[in-house]
Specification:
Number of strands: 5
Strand order of the largest sheet: 1-4-5
Structural class: mainly alpha
Shape: elongated
Radius of gyration: 22 Å
Number of helices: 13
Order of helices and strands: EEEHHHHHEHHHEHHHHH
Largest sheet: 3 strands, mixed
Helix content: 55-70%
Distance between the termini: 51 Å
Length: 328
Amino acid sequence: MPLLAYYLHHLSPFLIQFGSNIGIRYYGLAYVLGFLCGYWLYRLLVKRGYSEMQPSQVADFMLWWVVLGTLIGGRLGYMLLYDTRAFLDHPLSFFEIWQGGMASHGGMIGLCVATLIYARKHRISWLNTVDNLAVVAPIGLFFGRCANFINGELFGRATSLPWAVQFPRELYFIDPNRAGPILEQASQIRPDFGVLEILIAHVPTSPALQHLLAQSLTPRHPSQIYEALLEGVLLFLLLWFFRTHVRWPNGILSGLFCIFYAFFRFCVEFVREPDAPLVAGMSRGQFFSLFLIPLGVGLILAGFLIRSYPPIFRRDFPVGFKKQSQRT
């Protein structure tokens, strides 16, 4: 297949742009949509009796505890696990969330800490709280991975598959001996295109630049889409089915979330370009995902040992649901 047949990524990171680097970014919008959908789904679970919270508590819980836990944990996890040098040199870069750079593993840790504090403060089951969060969390992962694709970041390894994508941000990582001639040709289109940051910013609006890059860049796996479908859509469907159709004690769903997420992430990392040095021959994503498996097993064991249940399983529930639950 000729190189020009591949899709060249030329999406703008801005939904609305007010200046050279100011506007409403899809990355931020993804977090807003993730939290709004998460709020709606979590409140739905609360109203149906799957949570020990009251519906009036959900807004406060999602806005202050879930949002802050995810943002702080995700950003701190990225800075410490993937970009330690930049964090040490410029600690204030921690607040530059609009530039991207969030670690899902760090976000999970932040959520666990935030929900543990919340559960102890309000004297409700922590396992029940994280179970319901595990059910809705894949929605946020889905929007986040879609935003990664729109930003053209965290792309996959080289491939010749027909759905491969050419990502301009590849120029940040390839050998300067290869990037140099591309920048030189770009500068002939417009002198300032010889500066990499300016070139990347103008790909969405310059057909001539798009034509040049389509002949020069490597076709790659759109690994962000793979992760959106596996860690987002498929994981959500599985956990939602288990939450609403199976009578399991608290802790099981969060354990399954850890195991399924680790498995999906580990598999996709084989076709994702590593964004940090390998650890024991594995990508950072694979290495950190391994720790989620024993955590997931531990949560499942704790659930079966403690055997506490959501409110809906501790009372007379509607006939339709009772018949459904008796099959498990």
